[in-house]
Design goal:
With 226 residues, the protein is an alpha/beta fold. Helices cover 34% and strands 26% of the residues. It has a single domain, classed as Spore Coat Polysaccharide Biosynthesis Protein SpsA, Chain A (Alpha-Beta Complex), CATH 3.90.550.10. It contains 7 helices and 11 strands. It has a 7-stranded mixed beta sheet, sandwiched between helices. A two-stranded antiparallel sheet has the order 2-3. Helix 2 links the parallel strand 4 and strand 5. The longest helix is centred in the middle third of the chain and has 14 residues. The chain is globular and about 55 Å long.
C-alpha cells in the first residue's frame, strides 16, 4: 500500500500575510490542487493531511466539497517540519501501514508534481527503500567562506535540488525518525534521515515546474502553469 502524507502545517512566514495553502487558483485553494494529484493517482491508496488544528474544519469542508475521498485522516502538525512528518507517519500506523508500504511525504505547496513523476519515485522507492524527486542544477554552484570569497566551484552535473515527494519504506521511516529524535538530529528534508544512517537514497529527476511555493512570485508561477 502506498500512503501519501501531505504536509500542510507551515506558517507561510515569507508570504507577507497570505496563507499560500488557501490561495485560490482557478477558483480552488492551492492545497486542493496538490491533493488532487495524489487523489487521481491509481497507485496511491490513502492520503493523510498534516495541518494546524485551527484549519481542521476548513480543510474538512474542502475535502467534502471537492470529493477528495482518499483523504482518510487529518493529523495535527508539529513544532517543526520533521515533527509534522513524524505525526503523519504515526497516522499511517493507525491506518494499518505494513513494513514494506511506501510513505510519500509531499509539501502541500507543491501542486505541480506529475503523475509520471510520482510513479517513477514509487518504482525507485520500492527498489531502494528510499527515493525523492529532484531537479538537476542549472546554474554553477560555488562554495564560499565567511568573507564571501569563493573557495570552490562544484560540478553542477552532480548536484540536484531536492523537491517532493520524498518516499521511504514504512519500517525504515519509523527507524530513522525515531533515531533522529533520540539523537536530537534535525534534517532539512525527510530522506536526509535515511542518508545519515548510510542507507542509499535514489534521486529521480523531475520537472523544473515541481517547485514549492515560498514567495508571492512563486504563486504567480504556479498560477501560470495551472
Amino acid at each position: 500500500m502506498n500512503i501519501a502524507v501531505i504536509l500542510a502545517s507551515g506558517s507561510s512566514k515569507r508570504m507577507k500575510g497570505i496563507n499560500k495553502l488557501f490561495f485560490k487558483i482557478k477558483k480552488k485553494p492551492l492545497i486542493v490542487h496538490t491533493i488532487r494529484v495524489f487523489e487521481a493517482h491509481p497507485q496511491i491508496k490513502k492520503i493523510i493531511l498534516v495541518a494546524k488544528r485551527k484549519n481542521f474544519k476548513k480543510l474538512t469542508d474542502l475535502i467534502k466539497k471537492h470529493k477528495l475521498d482518499k483523504v482518510i485522516k487529518i493529523a495535527e502538525g508539529g513544532k517543526e517540519r520533521q515533527n509534522s512528518a513524524f505525526n503523519g507517519l504515526q497516522a499511517a500506523e493507525e491506518l494499518g501501514a505494513k513494513d514494506k508500504d511506501i510513505i510519500l511525504f509531499h509539501n502541500g505547496a507543491n501542486p505541480l508534481v506529475s503523475e509520471s513523476e510520482i510513479s517513477s519515485c514509487l518504482r525507485a522507492a520500492k527498489r531502494y527503500g528510499a527515493a525523492l524527486a529532484g531537479q538537476l542544477a542549472r546554474d554553477t554552484v560555488k562554495i564560499i567562506n565567511g568573507k564571501g570569497e569563493v573557495l570552490k566551484t562544484l560540478d553542477r552535473r552532480k548536484i540536484f535540488l531536492a523537491q517532493t515527494p520524498q518516499l521511504i519504506e514504512y519500517k525504515l521511516a519509523q527507524k530513522v525518525f525515531i533515531r533522529a529524535f533520540k539523537e536530537n538530529f534535525r534534517g532539512t528534508d525527510d530522506v536526509s534521515l535515511v542518508e545519515r544512517l548510510g542507507k542509499k537514497v535514489k534521486i529521480v529527476p523531475c520537472s523544473y515546474k515541481n517547485i514549492k511555493v515560498t514567495t508571492k512570485d512563486d504563486l504567480k508561477t504556479i498560477k501560470a502553469f495551472l
